[in-house]
User: Fold this.
Amino acid sequence: MNRLTTSWGEFDVARFPEDPRDQLRAWSAADEYLLRRLKGIDDAGPTDLSGTVVVVGDRWGALVTSLAEHRPVQITDSFLGQQATRANLARNGIDPDSVRLLSVRELPPERIDVLLIRVPKSLALLEDQLHRLAPAVHPDTVVIGTGMVAEIHTSTLKLFERILGPTRTSLAVKKARLIFCTPDPQLARVPSPWPLQYALPADVGALAGRKVTNHAGIFCAERLDIGTRFFLRSLPERRGAERVVDLGCGNGVIGTAAALANPEAAVTFVDESFSAVASAEATYRENIASDAKAEFVVGDGLCGVPDGTVDLVLNNPPFHSHQATTDATARRMFGGSRRVLRPGGELWVIGNRHLGYHAKLRRLFGNCEVVASDPKFVVLRAVKR
Assistant:
């Protein structure tokens, strides 16, 4: 946990789940820059926050925790971000009802007077959100984006300009920058182009030629990434009634392939992204009979799965948390998998060779087998003894 000191007060804020080994802060210079601007520091007048304030992409709740007295609405694609916000409000003694928490899959407020946007890593997610929010913006809406200099590109500014109105940027402060956008009521309002669909190639096993649905913000949303493609070619051949978990499911192609290959399996799709789980469900429904058994869970990994109830976990763990490279998520996924697997149950993992997942799995499971490999990727199998 770290203490965030702002002109709005001092707050103890942390990421979620808390990990004493994690040295990453729950805010950045971009958050600090935006909060100073709203208060009227740096030669700018204070922003009127008496109307409906919407904060999009607040990664760990630092912004809405600081602005809680103005009863903001937080919109996020991250379940962990929502949990972090709840925890940060609680640890600072703030009424949880002072912040309204919405996912990107829910309807935004009908009118927005102040729109604050923490620029996401995914340009597609930003595009989708601007389209969804545009009808609620009026000519007097204050629109301010914030991000680190490395996160704000010409394409970022063009999206604001094309969807909302004229856009300019601030000077950089501590490698952070602000985006100022003036809503143009004359701009034509068009629906978001998301979600997208594409057909899978012919060399991916059970899913060959079938359609995949991708909501905005999903990794490689416009094409099948090469790691998943390699994994699909290497999935285990299994039969019988068993419980399978597609952990960190993304668009659901791995779990859907497992369901096609073994119609008796009950597959659970789990991801912390609301858009990912929506994509996985759409992909599954497109390709699997309606009476098949499946569950779709937005959550913190395997936290809601009882011990010793799963036969097979399929996992392509992320190794980034926003812009930071970390193996914290993979470690939690591996540990959770060992807990939920039955004796004899298996965890199958794909990862970049350089990440060294084999060593982590051997320490945790006492065994690890290389199922398939190429110069970039490796598919690993660990068995719960």
